[in-house]
């Protein structure tokens, strides 16, 4: 089986906007209907059959940002901040607001933490570089789910802030079952913990970066 290298994965950045003839719709369809097939076939060398993971991730992210701006969705609109004198002007709160406002800019961090946790929990299956490719697809799926969640919060019920995270957890576990084609119970258990730890690490790193940016501007 051909192995994906870090060089191949990172080289996707250079042709992300030029791969206009790649089968985007086929990649999108399999991402939700049969993600395991998409991951396995891409990693086995069928690179021209599907849209490259980094290019796919970038396109989905751009579309998500455009839609959010079009419907004027504000992620902070319903975030409750404790109000005490001087509290909501501290660096910690300002950093949290910055992180929420720029959450799309930190999705690359989520790709990294997800790949790292996949390698830790399923270390015998694939190399880290291959999990990076899979994680780009997975986070793209998370972005799509987040886009629908933005519509739901904007036009249906704006009190459900974490629906996308829960939906992504379910998708993530089912995608891993489809990917590894092994007994579902242990895949789901390890998938659950890998997703939780990846999300926590992602939030910590994203918040840390946000804090440093806000601190440097103060």
Automatic annotation (TrEMBL):
Family matches, as InterPro entries: DUF3667
Protein name: DUF3667 domain-containing protein
Keywords: Membrane, Transmembrane, Transmembrane helix
Organism: Patiriisocius hiemis
Pfam families in the cross-refs: DUF3667
Transmembrane portions of the chain: 53-71, 134-153, 159-180, 192-215
